[in-house]
Every structure is written in structure tokens, then in C-alpha cells.
Amino acid sequence: MTNLVVLGGGESGVGTAVLGKTQGFTVFLSDASKITDAYKSILLQYNIPFEEGGHTESKILAADLVMKSPGIPYTAPIIQKLQQQNTQIISEIEFVATRGDYQTIGITGSNGKTTTTLLTHHLLTTGGLTFGIGGNIGTSYALQVAQNPTMPYVLELSSFQLDGIDTYRPNIAVITNISPDHLDRYEYKYENYVASKFRITMNQGADDYLIYDADDVESCNWLNKNKTLAVLLPFSIKRKIDTGAYLTEDGKSIVVNVGNQAGEIVIGTRDISLEGKHNYKNAMAAVVIAKLRNVDDSLIRSGLKSFKGAEHRLEKVLNVSGVQYINDSKATNVNSVFYALDSMKTPTVWIVGGVDKGNDYSEIFDLVKEKVKAIVCLGANNAKIINAFGSVVKTSKIAEAGNMVDAVKLARGFAEEGEVVLLSPACASFDLFKSYEDRGRQFKDAVHKLQE
Fold it and tell me: How far apart are CA 416 and CA 130, in angstroms?
């Protein structure tokens, strides 16, 4: 009987442990930190042995196979020891892939992958198709497969999850875009991060599809230098695409044609619930998938109108005294902030900061100069942000906060009627918050308290 060790007692780890147990593996789960009561109850329900608050090396090193949760870096001492003895280390996604022929649509990218995943799932289900959703979003993919092994899934995939695949093969893969992110996990080498994203297509064949941004320099460079067997379906907001998707020259419509019997569909941009050109790209990718799956055009149109968007992604929270507060906590890199600032129509008070991941802020200097009237730095170490933007925004309009309540109060002091307060951090959240979700919810709570 194969000895499976799961490292990490979070969503992906517990889900993998359950799937392993139901498929006959001997399973042991180990977490260096505390495991929440909710996850413990699942482990106990399935009679899966576990430990928390540290690793018993002898048990871990005796594994035939190790599933590493995506948050654990390959530089962790226990991972290094496993690699030295050539123990196979995989991700949750790969573990599921080795357990059966599961049909998936895999979506990755530096920005937009959550919105594209949610919108794709919405269009498919609105179109009457049965699809689950998982990966880097929602309930563990492995746990869902354990409970419903016949359902196809739309998966949001991070670079960390893709690092742990060997055989995983999505029938449809999407790379929304690539920009510098998580460079601290890739030896500060951008090419390593780019290569990680393109692992999504490494096992695809001639019957599979790769949807990508034809305006994205790094994606195009990789495809010019490397080969994939998948059928390429690009999308663009800058030029006409014969097979794929594009934004018309007047900016009023997107046109999608995937070259199959489904035919061409033209959709007015005003009929898309999401705002901003970056969201037109997300919509293009999702509509391409819907057309590949032969969803009726009328149902695609109704799905685009009814979609509500992702929490923590340019989420309009509240208008207080004429000031609109927007939660973009999921913007954990500079490129994502670029899209957010680019969509702002009025003077903006920008709340920024957190754990820097090797950010280069120069690419947004012009946008900050044009759009931002004041900056509130929210992080344990704000020196890099202050140094970067001290010459772009008046120093009298740069403030620091050590918690979310103070950050929102400072932002309110800068903002005037008709303006915007935008939380778009450009950084990871782990200095002051548990996650970007925790950061976003604290922001929303603080904004609502302004009315009290």
C-alpha cells in the first residue's frame, strides 16, 4: 500500500488526504502550524492520522509520495531533505490527475485568473452545462473529486500549483497574462516565473486548446521560442484576431470566433457587467471557452450581463459622503494595480503596501501621477513605497498606517466628494493580515464603520 504524506493542513492538504484515503493510500498529514478545528473535524471524520505544530521527520521521510501544499516553498528544510532522497513531491492538482481521467479547464495568469475562472464557470453553468470549480479558489479540488469523481471542473491554477505537476493535462488552458509576481519564490528570476506559468500547456496535445493574451509581451516571447501541441486561440484589445477574440477598433464590441461549428459572436461591451479593458480580456477568454463548449449565444449574452464579479477585485463597497470606496485587495502585484488605477475616472486616494515580492514600481509612475492625489501606506515596512512615490505625490499627501481602521480614516481625511478611495496593495498581505481575503474584509468593515 502506497504511503502518502501530505504536508500542510489547509484546503488543498486536507482535500488531498481525503482523496488519498478513499482511494486506498496509507495517509499521514503533517503541518508545522496549527490546524483549524474545521479541518481537524474532516480528518477525524475520515480517520486520517495527523500532527500539527511541527514535523516528525522520520514519518515524513518514510513517504513513497508527498503532496506539498502550495504555500510551502521548495527551500523549506523538510522539502530539501525529501528532494535529497529523491522522494516524489507533487501538488494537489497532480495528485488528482494521477488518480483518473478527469476533464478540466485550467486557468492561470498573474492577474485576472480568479475573475476569468468565476466568469467561465458562470457562463458554462448558465449555458446548462454541469461543471465544478476549484483549484486556487473555493473548496479543494481533490475533496470535490473524492465526493463527485465524474464531474468536469474549471480550475484556477497558481504558479505554485503548476510547479508541482508532471502529467496534469487540461483540455482547455488559459494564460490570462504574465507580469512580475512572486519573484521571491523564483530566485528573483523573471524567466523562472514565466516558465512556471507555461507548465500549464506542457502536456497538452493536438486536441487541446491554449487561450492566451496576444498583447502580452512575455506570453508571445515564450510562444515564439517554445512549442506547444495545443491549438492556439489568442485574444487582443489592440488588433483584429481571425481565430480567437478581439476588441473592435471603436471599442464598442468584442468579437469571438473559435473556428468550429459554433460560429462567430459579437457582444457589445456595454452588455458586459464588468468594467475596464482588462475585464474585456477576461470576458474574451471566458467566451472563447463557452464557444468551444457550444454554449448557446443567447445564454452567453445573459451570463455576461448577470455575472457579479469576484470579491476583493475592484469591488465597490460603499459610497460615504460622496466618496466611493473600492476593495481591490486581491491586487498583490504592480501589474494588477496598473489595471485598477487605469480604470479610475476621478482623483484617487490609494491605500498600498504589505509584503513586497520584488516589485518594480516604475511602470505605474505615470498612472500614479495622473490618477492619485494621496497615498496611505499600509504595511510593516513602507520605506520602498515612500521612496518610490515621494517624487510623484506630494510628501504632505503620503501617510502611514499600522492597521486597516487607521488606514481608512486617513484615506477619508484626504478624499473629497466625487473622489475614490482605492485599496489596491500591490503586495502580499502576510505582514498585518492572514490573507488578502482577511485584508479585504477588514477594509470593508472599516468602511462600513464610517457610517456609524
Answer: 47
